[in-house]
Design a protein that fits this description.
The protein is α+β, with helices and mostly antiparallel strands. 50% of the residues lie in helices and 11% in strands.
């Protein structure tokens, strides 16, 4: 059983996609659409577009796309029903009681069981830390300066050397091997069967913002490898969408949050009174984690290790945090490597002072880029200021840009007016929307290449949803049957049906697709780049697309035509003759794009 299509559509219409996505991603209007940094892959140039007219989003970099439901499902890692409930509540729409389908209930029940299993595992590890066998682990934690209260607050635990204690414990709780394997707490091989993933390690339970244990991190005792080990991704744990310590930091009532690298950094800061600290989970900060931070603060202080790797991590994190609208500063802990080491040697007050002295992240980026130039050489210094000017162009607000120009000029001993003129000259060379670059991550590399025929069909669908007034004329020349790709033909039928009902709405159409990958693929069909945006070129471009579509359709039908189908042959001959006329005289359209 599911909610009616009418109710789903009502909820979609009451949640404007620009408003919803704008709560997660910093968007700026460019023409008829809004652009921002994609929350689904790392990028420096904004390729993530949100169309208020289509009520859809699409990333030209990674291909993510859909309507407002798709966005919430992908961003929050929600099911459709969970996304629907969130948006219904946001819009003030009361949902009627609904019985879950068998499949949906099974999935919800499985998540609940996995959460309960992780809770039991956390209890097991916690108890093990109090046993004689855990003395090396307890000595390690005490040696790092942790109090009993802190160890208890973070639920720290221990896994022994034998590798099957947790397995035996959970089997006594009557969990099946299938569920145990899905939990990510165990490894399986032919020689050993199923055995504990974590052994001989201090255990750090990882909790979501609702204080539910969703995974674990473990630090090995001794010289074993790897030094740190994290739970794999499961139905309840996605490390790119969670932050260690956020469950406590989000209620700290501090005006900012501190992002650092490791479990011990977070724990040490919380113990010292800085209970607004969080850490990414064994990976560089992701755009999803940056957006997660935006829910709870407007400012983030970055404290990464002071070595080269830490500097690189900070430089990667800054644009991601800015991309979701966060103010950012970078804390200098030198000569110490990390927060834990600093606090151990200098204490609370000195650490607080370093937080107060945090450097504006833009000036930090400039200072780091300065190291790439020979500032004693006139050419090196010139090249440096050209890079600075290019970076200053990123500030669209004139007052903000001028303030930064004045600050940079003051720090580097250059006249403000001279730097401002350089910025203005560069601005004249780069008028318009920033070029959309494909991400270097290779995220596009697995996509199947489109044929020329499919590109034309995709372009036609984009024309239709962008200029719906063409439909009365268009369907005289192009029908859904002229779309030779099965999916494209299915979409075309839906759009033609919508047109006959009086309104074309691609966002409504997306509700018919449940799978997120399929939704992204469908969204891409409505976001092809239409050439020749100038009014005088659009009619010719549209004419060319119609001719190409018809030519491809005729070729496809000819290849499939039975030799005995004389009626079909005659129709194709007539269509071919008509196409030849269009190529000479143009398609007899009665629409204007002016």
């Amino acid at each position: 059983m599911r909610y009616s299509d009418e109710l789903v559509e009502e909820i979609r219409l009451k949640n404007d996609i620009v408003d919803v996505i704008g709560g997660y991603v910093k968007l700026q209007r460019k023409g008829s659409s809004y652009f921002g940094l994609c929350p689904f892959h790392n990028e420096k140039s904004p390729s993530f577009s949100v169309s208020p007219g289509k009520q859809m989003y699409y990333c030209f970099g990674c291909g993510a796309g859909g309507n407002v439901f798709t966005f919430i499902m992908e961003y929050e890692n929600y099911t459709f029903m969970e996304a629907l409930k969130l948006l219904a509540e946001r819009a003030g729409v009361e949902l009627p009681e609904l019985e879950y389908s068998k499949e949906a209930k099974e999935q919800a029940d499985k998540k609940a069981v996995l959460l309960q299993m992780n809770k039991e595992a956390a209890k097991y590890y916690y108890v093990q830390l109090r046993t004689p066998a855990a003395k090396p682990a307890m000595d390690y934690l005490k040696g790092r300066g942790l109090t009993d209260e802190t160890i208890q607050k973070f639920g720290l635990g221990f896994s022994d050397k034998f590798g099957n204690g947790l397995y035996r414990y959970l089997k006594e709780k009557n969990y099946s091997d299938e569920l145990l394997h899905e939990s990510g707490l165990f490894n399986v091989d032919e020689k050993h069967g199923m055995y504990d993933k974590f052994w001989n390690r201090v255990i750090y339970p990882i909790m979501d913002v609702n204080n539910k244990v969703i995974g674990f991190g473990g630090r090995v005792m001794g010289d074993g490898k790897p030094k740190y080990l994290n739970s794999p991704e499961t139905k309840i744990f996605d490390k790119s969408r969670n932050l260690y310590g956020l469950n406590a930091a989000r209620i700290s009532r501090k005006r900012n949050l501190i992002i650092c690298e490791g479990y011990m950094d977070v724990i040490s800061m919380h113990q010292a009174g800085f209970n607004n600290a969080v850490a990414s989970l064994g990976t560089a900060l992701t755009s999803l984690q940056a957006s997660l931070l935006k829910r709870y603060t407007e400012e983030v202080l970055i404290i990464y290790d002071s070595d080269g790797a830490g500097v690189k991590a900070a430089l990667r994190a800054i644009p991601m945090l800015k991309g979701v609208g966060l103010s950012t500063k970078v804390v200098n802990l030198r000569p110490y490597k990390d927060p834990d080491e600093f606090i151990q040697h200098e204490g609370h007050d000195a650490f607080q002072q370093r937080l107060l002295e945090a450097e504006n992240s833009f000036l930090y980026e400039i200072r780091m880029s300065e190291q790439n130039y020979d500032m004693k050489d006139p050419q090196g210094k010139t090249d440096f200021f050209h890079e600075v000017a290019a970076r200053l162009l990123g500030f669209e607000d004139e007052i903000e840009r001028n303030n930064y120009i004045d600050s940079v000029a003051r720090v580097y001993g250059i006249e403000s007016d001279t730097l401002r003129k350089l910025v203005n000259r560069l601005a004249l060379k780069s008028v318009g929307i920033a070029e959309v670059r494909k991400p270097k991550s290779g995220i596009n590399s697995t996509r199947e290449k489109e044929s020329a025929s499919e590109k034309v069909q995709k372009l036609m669908l984009t024309w239709i949803v962008t200029y719906p007034f063409v439909m009365p004329d268009l369907e005289q020349f192009i029908t859904p049957e002229d779309f030779t790709n099965t999916l494209y033909q299915r979409i075309a039928r839906m759009i033609y049906d919508q047109a006959h009902q009086g309104q074309i709405s691609p966002a409504t159409l997306l509700n018919q697709f449940v799978d997120s990958e399929e939704q992204s693929r469908v969204a891409a069909l409505f976001n092809a780049v239409i050439p020749l945006e100038a009014d005088e070129g659009r009619e010719k471009a549209f004419n060319d697309v119609i001719c190409s579509m018809k030519e491809n359709s005729i070729s496809s039908q000819t290849a499939q035509l039975s030799p005995t189908d004389m009626v079909g042959l005659q129709k194709l001959m007539n269509d071919k003759k008509m196409l030849d006329t269009w190529k000479i005289s143009g398609v007899p359209l009665h629409v204007s794009f002016e």
